[in-house]
Request: fold
Amino acid sequence: MLPRPHSWISHFGLGEAHGAPADAAALGSKGAGLATMSTLGLPVPPGFTIATSVCATYYAESRTLPEGLEADVQAGLEVLERGSGLRFGSPHDPLFVSVRSGAPSSMPGMMDTVLNVGLNDVTVVALGHRAGDERFAWDSYRRFVQAYADVVLGLDTEPFDAALAAARRQGTPDWRALTATFLRLAADGSGTPFPQDAHAQLWGAVRAVLDSWCSRRATNYRRLHNLPDVPGTAVTVQSMVFGNAGAESATGVGFTRDPAIGAPEPFGEFAANAQGDDVVSGTLTPQPLSRAGRERLGGASTSLEEAMPAVYADLVAHFRTLERHFGAMQDVEFTIERGRLWLLQTRAGSTSPHASARIAVDMANEGLIDRRRALAAVDVTSVGRLMHPSVRADSGQPPLAKGLPASPGAAAGAVAFTAEDADMFASQGRAAILVLTETHPRDIRGIHAAAGILTSRGGATSHAAIVARGMGRPCVVGAGEVRVDAAAGTFVARGREVRRGEIITIDGGTGEVFLGALPLERPELGPAFATLLGWSDAVRRLGVRANTETPDDVTLASALGAQGIGLLRTEFSFQEPEALALMRALILADSGEARRTTLDELLTLQRAAYARVLAFARGMPITIRLLDLPLSAFVPQGEDEIAAVAAHSRTTLAEARARIAALAETNPALGHRGCRLAVSWPDLYAVQVRAILEAAVEIDASIVPQILVPMVSLASEFAHVAANIAGVAAAIAGARRAGPRYQVGAMIEVPRAALRAGELARTASFLSFGTNNLTQTTFGVARDDAAAFLERYRERGIVPGDPFITLDTGGVGELLREAVARGRAVRPDLEIGVCGEHGGDPASIDFFHRIGVDYVSVSPFRLPTARLAAAKAALAS
Reply:
């Protein structure tokens, strides 16, 4: 049994809070937010939070509640009773509470909530008398019975949904009669009468919330977002306020700024005479908070600003208070009970990447935060989604339907109606668009597998919208024209039936839905993010360069802020059709003269190819990797192709086959390639080096190409190749009366090279770590083969993540750390870079910063991520 704290609970409300308001680890994010709002004097219904340590104890003790918790909860209820003059379970003046989950990190919709706890056949009458509205009381009771049956009793909700739909089809529902139906369904499903004791209801709800921490959807969400399984969830028990208590009551969700575009104005939705999760779950399509929001959407419904102007003004004032305190855009749940506003939750808002950048810059310019905090506020993992595609304006196709733009970006894919559909399409390599009436927390797996989400109900603050924005998935919600029949595998919009597997395109920036796969285009980064990246560049120490192959890559890299080319792959210059034919002729050449002629022709092509790239890279450092592929990568395939190449090379078919067979390798990835091939075929690499150096001199004599020798294992083999390169440079100098400027470096891709970095540094001007190959050779597994077991390793806690995505700091990272130290011990000015895919991973970038790497080099579209991550690494240190 874990040691018992002084108390398992912390109180909040009535202008004060016990415990540390900012301690989300102990109180959960919801409990910490409620405590903070209470100390700020905001209108929060009083309650108490059961600490996350209870959840930890609950699971440690085989789902047994800890000793002392019952007494603490009873004491907490008594505080609520004294403050309200009501009594929990009283038949005359009953107190009602909500029981809600609250993980340390927000997990929207992933765990359970039960509202209206304490309602039963007797207290429902008392509530009706107190409110002067029996209809409201029975509406609240039927909601409670259905939620309790689902969350606590674990019953199928379909019979309840069917009964509710039937009641609504008859006109104004008789909530009392429907409640009786629900009570019968609950009793039949569970085999016992529905609990009438308020305390039994409360403990059933508390246990259900704790149990939901380990539900499949919650576990999947934590795995997808790399969240820890400990300490667990807190449980908030809070006095009920009712948004379904009549025309002057409502429930809603508001953002202190627009979460999609970042505009500095309140954004959100509300539903009049509704309760709790009606807005968040997307079970109805709500109305906008502000008049401007209504006008922007072209709706005819009344906004909260117009319907309840005084309440709206109070809400906006509270938004400002929260932003001043937190220094971040907030996502706020609220309820209005008979004209009185109550705040039920605040948390950092889920935003699109563009909105996140704009909000951070605006808040810094407004003086709410400084630039360092603005950089810290932007989630670096979301930056890669900044350049969301959109449907090209000239597509000319009319939309099939239109809903609310909930998460920006456009995607085309096969229509899927279930998570299983989306998973299946993804496993086939097909993009899927998940089409639902509304989303439920259980749909998290399908949302993750899908390229986009479309719902016929719900608003921009619904569960679907929040989760889609968090995952960077395009999302359109509230498309009322779309009538979904998941059982039949179809949806209908504007008279057109669309079947499962048909292709549609959605644009989460406009809310439009189209038939077929429409052409997409990528937008600009935008001024806010350009500003943020400028601030990043002023802070970071780590250089950021680009991995490229073509002149177009170099141009894009320059536009996205690359400080140089950290890796120019030269294989492209060998695989153009004319160059490929020459490589094959060289491989099959049967005489020295034929080889020399072929090499001369290859030199001309190579020089022109490098000149095109170097012209775009003028003024930037550029690292050019020598040929890394084995010769077997260039041989003809198939009998017809072999025969054609043999004829062109004036070689017999038998000789051609023999030479091709001689190049075959058991494991080409660890075979005759890179530095090893440069030793065996020096004339081929001499041509490549000559082409690079002559192109550099012709384009701009100030260019100093960094020539990178790949797949180095031995200092002696590297010194041999470096001497050959020096010989080529000397020959050029003799012909031109001026020697070309260049540097030679070693690419570290095998553990031995990392361990002998000190020896390599005696010859090398720089080292570049190819962390993709270094990870493969250190683990002894090919990246493509690792996928077969890595996910199982992750699920079982054997590894924390994929080492091909985030660097394994304990093994591969230790080799890097040692190589940096040994290399610089010999040559203090040794330049060290990383050009593997890890160079674009934020966690890996932090490690590279800490061990003293000079720069990372990444694919062009990962440059913004790397620039911001490097700044965050500098701030963290």
Summary: The longest strand covers residues 340-348. The chain has a mean pLDDT of 90. The radius of gyration is 32 Å.
